[in-house]
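Appendix B. Raw example, untouched.
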Amino acid sequence: MFVSLALFRPPMRCDAPEQQPMDAGTSSSSGSSKGSSSAIASSASNVASRLGTTIKTTTAGRPSSASAELAKWKRNFELNAKTDPVTGDKYLDQEAFVNTIAAREDADKIKRDQYAVLFKVADINKRGRVSWDDFTVFETILKRPDAPYEIAFRWFDTDNNGLVTFDEFQEVFKATMSKESIPFNFDSPWVTLYLGKKDGVHVLDYAQFAQMMKGLPGERMRQAFHYFDKDKTGYIKPDEFAKIIKELARHKLSDPLLSRLTTLCTLSAGNKISYSEVIAFHNIIVGMDSVEHTVKDAISKSKDGRIDKGDFLNSAAQSTRYINFTPLEAGIIFHFAGMGMGDTRLAWKDFEQLIAPTWERPSDMHVGTEVVPGKGALEDFLHSCYNFVLGGIAGGIGATAVYPIDLVKTRMQNQRSKVVGELLYKNGIDCAKKVYKNEGFKGFYRGLPPQLIGVAPEKAIKLTMNDLVRGKARDPDTGKIKLYWEVLAGAIAGASQVVFTNPLEIVKIRLQMQGEMAKVTGDAPRGAVHIIKQLGLLGLYKGASACLLRDVPFSAIYFTAYAHLKKDLFREGENGKTLSFMQTLTAAGIAGMPAAYLTTPADVIKTRLQSEAKKGYTTYSGNIDAFTKILAEEGAGALFKGGIARVLRSSPQFGVTLVAYETLQSSFPYSSINKSVKKTSPTLLEGPEDITRVRARNALKILLDVHEDIVVPKGESTR
């Protein structure tokens, strides 16, 4: 059910066609709408009545989005409403209205009592109270995409006739200013261009007024500079500049930036600030969204996560239709972001204090799934435990998915050629066929249970160690990590897993070979417990050095390649991009190919050392002995036996494992488990913020451009 758009129009225009914001210079229907306060109140009541009636008659069966929204308005209203002891009617006084609109202290540096400005707009009848009908109309106004300018217009349109005259503009403007405020010249050419001067014949309709308000901050800045530059030198003092900015734009800037405004004078000699610098600073404030976009774009293309002024200007030229930042503007941006060291290369952390009014240093930030220093030993330990558990689950999923390929790979690697007897398998496909024929489908999963028991801690410790080392090595300012640290993190991860991998592998290999041994020798298959007893504790680590030779380079290659494929090939993180399931799986799969194939010789040696040699087979005393004998007896090609099968097994296994790992992390985020972790992006309200509340704050921001300390003018009824 959709409520008619005709219902979503301001009360003074209830009988006019729906209007969208118009370009400056065109007329609005608001100009022809003239009504008394009683007519407005009647319109408000009619709108609310029609809105409720429409919902009631069209939502039989199930609630509509509009009825749910109306119910939410009603809940908010009644939660804070007071009851008239005489009539029994519910209403919001100024304090109750502010409590309803501003759920808590505003995150954008707007003072709570400044929401009373909106109360003046909502109080259509000027009675000092907002009824349910009035509140419904006000919420309906906030549904309009141009609500911020609509509310500002209603603030200045004191007689509610749909027009703003010169007298109204001047009266309301002056009422918001104190004796200490920087004066504003209402006879300036800028004002008369918009409102005229002779006989007050030029009045502003809504569209013209909105255009004027957009240009007001620039005119305020120009007049403020002219006011302090009494000697007409073209310069003002640093403290005068600070007063201008704090009075006209405090709500748009962060506290660290506000505390250093006077340092702008250091950009040039003389300890004074020129008009060019003031206007450049104003342009930065107006274009702060473009500044943020340009900075993020430049940093995403930077290898070290830092940029200089040249990178910034180059990015602006490439990402905007016109080069919209001057060298002076770029210099000011880097001056304040770099704490006065504008010639240094800066990271995103440096720009945050310039861009975000609510900036505070993130002491508990996470980058992806890796722990960033600064949380303490206990927090690092808890996060590592979290990663360990998820890594174990993901490892089990990955191992199960590719276990049949692993069994074929093992049997191919253990098969001796040119020395003993007839070959059992011609190739991997032939091996798979014979396994299925002789041992059935279950034969492909021979040795899987101990593999699953061991693979959980094996993959868990590998993923956890890689995350931990990368997190500790990551630059806290840029979030970047140097290539040699990436390789080292992978190598450490590979080395750490051997304590679990080697016992697991030797038992698995001997179980995988039993089906083949039973066919050749007639020996009955034995279980994992028998193999463990036969080998003993030291025997479980037979071939451990070969395992290290395989796992250390494998992980060093794999994790480094995976990270760079996501970042460099699929552009993860650029402009907030997140990879799809298939992109992540593809990156993980491709990364496994070179890692698996290049470490095949070490895997062949490990397999030969760990498998139980059949009668007549060559035995080996160590890595070097195995390498030289295989090379002499079977040739160099034997060192890459099962290489393709290893690629086919390792590549998808780690692909599935990492995708499962990252999916688990996103599905069960650490912050939802450990309640002590702070949210990195606090919002004004819990959950997604209602767009109407965003528009309400934006309306206040427009009015704050008139004066930083805007409040309800003295004499207004606020009982």
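End of appendix B.
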